[in-house]
Design brief:
single chain; 383 residues; alpha+beta; Rossmann fold; OB fold (Dihydrolipoamide Acetyltransferase, E2P); 2 domains; 6-stranded antiparallel beta sheet; 22% helix; elongated; binds adenosine-5'-diphosphate; binds magnesium ion; ABC_transporter-like_CS; transmembrane transporter activity
């Protein structure tokens, strides 16, 4: 199981359209056998990072190490990596068997019988034995994706790179392949970097997720840590569906409490010890939809809101609310289904209130009530 390490990896494109830093001083590592998911919005530099790992793109500066060996100047074939693309990139005239065996012929010194055996073994793992003699035109999207995976796995790479491999599949198949890919990766124990813009894929598959924005790494953590303790507002709002509600508020201290207020309404009150906000008067408040509780009338610490739309989801409901000039979304159990126009009380547990610096976006308070329970990591802040 190979380790992977990127140190200060930077890619600057300098072409007719101008100069652009696609990836900026990226530090990232993966332990042997780890599944790291690189996630972020379109254009944030995920594919560029993966292509530099694969050797399909040069690095402008920085180093890439696989098992302690610097590989950034090596040809793709010398790096012991295999990459799967969204487009599958199968040879259209070759059968699945030939597609899978093709790379083996060039990348290993296995003889023909051994190659055949290896292909069969991986075909078994991927449940594509029946397809081995078909050409891509005879296969469905999901089947082509499996063959493309098989072609990469069969080479027994040290590092496995996948760039949005499930994007072309329909939603149901995507969910199934997600589970299956995770199982296969765990079985094989191969160090994997997986790129996606889909936060659900990232959250469900990753040992650790690496969140990127605009060429810069924002946070690398296990999914639950990134979700509960995001380093900044970008990460907080990127992870979770529906997205976290965020808005500006002022902080008013009274006794041992801090009231988070806006236009005369107190949206939440938190114990002063939960956060160190010396001299901070303005904050961004973050409330996750699933943390909003709805009652017939506002209770202690709650506020009033009008229901604009209730969306029935089957397993839960999304209730859209308006409070003063704010619109908020609550995710509530299916039994809670208020009608449009109804007035409800909304409350949130102080532990579940997130606070961010309105200028830098850096997290000031995440989930929990102990300010010290969460040590803030370095955050890249916009200039
Ligand atoms: P992602 O995969 O996260 O969507 P990319 O890595 O493809 O993002 O792109 C990152 C940035 O680099 C984008 O702004 C994109 O326009 C730019 N970019 C990608 N490839 C090239 C290229 N060959 N020449 C110039 N700019 C590029
Ligand atoms: Mg991409």
């Amino acid at each position: 199981m190979a380790t992977l390490e990127l140190n200060g990896v930077t890619k600057i494109y300098d072409d007719a359209q101008g100069r652009e830093t696609a990836v900026d001083s990226l530090d990232l590592s993966a332990a042997g056998g780890e599944f790291v998911v690189l996630v972020g919005p379109s254009g944030c530099g995920k594919s560029t990072t993966l292509r530099m790992l694969a050797g399909l793109e040069t690095v402008t500066s920085g180093t890439i190490e696989i098992d302690g060996r610097e590989v950034q100047d090596l040809a793709p074939s010398e790096r012991s990596i295999a990459m799967v693309f969204q487009s599958y990139a199968l040879y259209t005239k070759m059968t699945a068997r030939e597609n899978m065996a093709y790379g083996l012929k060039h990348s290993t010194d296995l003889d023909e019988r051994e190659r055949g055996r290896r292909v069969e073994e991986i075909a078994e793992l991927l449940d594509i034995v029946d397809l081995l003699d078909d050409v891509p035109a005879e296969m469905s999207g999901g089947q082509k994706q499996r063959v493309a995976l098989g072609r990469a796995i069969v080479r027994d790479p040290s590092v496995f790179l996948l760039d949005e491999p499930l994007s072309n599949l329909d939603a149901k198949l995507r969910a199934r392949m997600r589970t299956e890919l995770k199982r296969i990766q765990t079985d094989l124990g191969v160090t994997t970097v997986y790129v996606t813009h889909d936060q659900t894929e990232a959250m469900t598959m990753a040992d650790r997720i690496a969140v990127m924005d605009d060429g810069e790494l924002q946070q690398v953590d296990p999914p639950e840590t990134a979700y509960d303790h995001p380093t900044n507002e970008f990460v907080a709002t990127f992870l979770g569906s529906p997205a976290m509600n965020t808005f500006d508020a002022t902080v008013e201290a009274a006794d041992d409490e801090l009231a988070l207020r806006r236009d005369g309404t107190t949206f939440a009150t938190i114990p002063a010890h939960a956060v160190s906000l010396d001299d901070v008067e303005a904050v961004r408040v973050g409330l996750r939809p699933e943390d909003l509780r709805l009652d017939d009338a506002p209770g202690e610490g709650g506020f009033e809101a009008a229901v604009t739309v209730s969306e029935y989801q089957g397993n839960d409901n999304f209730v859209h609310l308006s409070a003063d000039d704010l619109t908020l979304t609550a995710r509530v159990p299916p039994s809670v289904y208020p009608s449009p126009g109804e007035t409800v009380g909304v409350s949130v547990d102080p532990a579940d209130v997130y606070l961010f610096d309105p200028t830098s976006g850096a997290a000031l308070k995440t989930r929990g009530l102990d300010a010290r329970s969460f040590e803030r990591r370095p955050v890249s802040t916009p200039e």
